[in-house]
Amino acid sequence: MNNDKKAYIAGGCFWGMEELFRTRPGVKDTEVGYIGGENEHPTYKNHPGHAEGIEITYDPSVTTFKELLDYFFRMHNPTTIDRQGNDLGSSYRSAIFFQNEEEKEQAQEVMAIVDASQKWEGKVVTTLEPYTTFWPAEPEHQDYLVRNPNGYTCHFERFTESFL
C-alpha cells in the first residue's frame, strides 16, 4: 500500500530547490512548477502571481512534513520578501502551500522555531498559503540541474544543523 504524501513549497528559483530536495532521505520524487497564482495553465513566460515552486513526494515513514520544512528553512533565505539571490519578484517568494489545518499548524510551529533560533538576521517572512493547483513546469525546467550541472542556482545548505 502506498502511503506517500506530497508537500508544496516555494523559495526562489525552483531548479535549485529541486536539486537539493531530490536527495533527501524519504523524498521519492520532485517536480518543479507554478503555484498560488492567477491564471490556469501558467508557463514560464506567463505565470502572474504564481510562485516557482516544487512538489515533493515523500514517504512519511522515513521523513515528516516538519523535517522537510526544517530543511527548507536551512537551504533558502526565508527573511527576504520576494527575493532569493539575484532573483526578484513574487515568483521567488518564500511560501508554504498547506493542504490542511495540520500542515498549516506544523508550518507555523516550524516558522516559530526558526525565528526563535535567531540564526537568520531577520524575521521569517515566508507566507502560508492554502494549496490551490500545482501546475507542472515545462519539460526543459524539470531536473534542470541534473541536465545542466553548471546551471544557475542560488540555493545551498546554509545551516547543517537542524532547527528542530
From TrEMBL:
Domain Peptide methionine sulphoxide reductase MsrA: 6-154
Swiss-Prot/TrEMBL keywords: Oxidoreductase
Top enzyme category: oxidoreductase
Pfam families: PMSR
Top-level taxon in the UniProt lineage: Bacteria
EC number: 1.8.4.11
Catalytic site: C13
Catalyzed reactions per annotation: L-methionyl-[protein] + [thioredoxin]-disulfide + H2O = L-methionyl-(S)-S-oxide-[protein] + [thioredoxin]-dithiol; [thioredoxin]-disulfide + L-methionine + H2O = L-methionine (S)-S-oxide + [thioredoxin]-dithiol
Gene Ontology terms, MF aspect: peptide-methionine (S)-S-oxide reductase activity
Database matches in InterPro entries: Met_Sox_Rdtase_MsrA_dom, Met_Sox_Rdtase_MsrA_sf
Role, per record: Has an important function as a repair enzyme for proteins that have been inactivated by oxidation. Catalyzes the reversible oxidation-reduction of methionine sulfoxide in proteins to methionine.
Family: Belongs to the MsrA Met sulfoxide reductase family.
PANTHER family: PEPTIDE METHIONINE SULFOXIDE REDUCTASE, PEPTIDE METHIONINE SULFOXIDE REDUCTASE MSRA 2
Protein name, entry field: Peptide methionine sulfoxide reductase MsrA
Gene designation: msrA
